[in-house]
Amino acid sequence: MDVAISPSKTVPTRLGAARVGIGGPVGSGKTALVERLIPALAERGVSLAVVTNDLVTAEDAERIRRSGLIDPARVVAVEAGACPHTVIREDPTLNIAAADDLEAAFPDLDLILIESGGDNLASTFSLDLVDWWMFVIDVAGGDDIPRKKGPGVIRCDLLVVNKIDLAPHVGVDLERMTREADAVRSGRPIALTVCRDGDGIDAVIDHICRDVLLR
Amino acid sequence: MTDPAALLLALRHADGTFPSGGFAFSQGLEARAALADDFGPFDLAAFLADQVLRRWAGADRVALVRAHRAAADLDRVATVDAEVEASTASEPLRAGSRRNGLAFLTAHRRLGTPGAEAYHRRIREGMAPGHVAVVQGLLWARLGLDETTASAMGGHVAVIGPATAAIRLGLVGAIEAQTAIATVTADLAAVCRRPIADGQPFSAFLPVVEIACARHATGDLRLFSN
Questions:
Q1: Does the distance separating the beta carbons of B104 and A81 come in below 8 Å?
Q2: Does the pLDDT at position B7 exceed 70?
Q3: Which domain, by its residues, includes A138?
Q4: Domain CATH code at residue A119
Q5: B3–chain A Cβ distance below 8 A for any pair
Q6: What chain A residue is nearest to B224 in terms of C-alpha separation?
Q7: Could you give the ipTM of this predicted complex?
Q8: Would you say A148 and A121 are in contact if contact means Cβ atoms under 8 Å apart?
Q9: A85-104 pLDDT, tens per residue?
Q10: How far apart are CA A146 and CA A30, in angstroms?
Q11: What is the pLDDT at residue A7?
């Protein structure tokens, strides 16, 4: 058997639309963030597509398709095989293939948002799949989330703290939560949002445009 | 197999950590388990034996071996691929095999495996469906893995995929799953020893699983693609 045991040591550079991951726990507001990002990015002239990784149903994909915000053909659902972190980290090939398909179908694409299924604080994106990623937490999940130093909170390129309007109602000291998040992230960016109302979305868009799209 | 280099190559490419997309497909296991009220309690060992003897032996393995033999000629590989497309009656299994094949090919494109980019182009142009058994045969041949080894690798992947799904669904424990896998290993080895004629047609007969898959595909709740 003449086996090829010394293949190329480098993975070829990928050309095409930028790929941005959105991870975070169940109910933190990932889909709501996507719904806010779609029109805001369109307003800035960004050609967009979305991949969702629903855990059990295609509900997130359907919600975005039916929103009227985007051509439904630009929204693709990828099943997570009972394991939301596998499809974005250990084996992202289904998501990569879905993003490749979108690029082939829409050659003008600038950006593909890849929304993870709801997961835990250890959830992280493979850089095989995305160029840059956000992690969404919400204040109602508890102000101790940053202190728990989950890899998702620490390693993401942008930490989005959502539902900040609920802080006084759930006994959360937002200032302390933000300070602690800042400390565990060594000063890397944090965005405070109320995705339901659109508050703070511009700051998220600014990060995407500056850090990913280089605009 | 005595060459450690060949053994290590085979282990790497058939390992569950190789990114192939396979984790998202239960090959009808989730669907079959959901029909326990109609068809009796789910039994992983029996399910795996059916997968090996009634499907993989006569269909997927034959496709893999024929693609392996044709690997130097992508037109011939595409012919085998088209036969798989035409002979797989179950739409969820057929679509799952294509998606799994594309994901598997995606990893190999990035790794620079010979033939991966060219065959992907055919799929993109609608000239080949890209079924997983076919791209396994093509790419494992191009990596230098011999026919017998590639066949055993395909059988191993066909068994550990559903077994892992059963664990994730909570149907069996991880250790119990190993017991079930062990019960089909002899069957798998025996199947791998069977000769395959050039141009051998495909055959599979798993009606309960196919009916279950059809129901599963239209269901609201499911963890696996098929």
A1: no
A2: yes
A3: 18-212
A4: 3.40.50.300
A5: yes
A6: A81
A7: 0.89
A8: yes
A9: 899 999 999 999 999 999 99
A10: 18
A11: 52
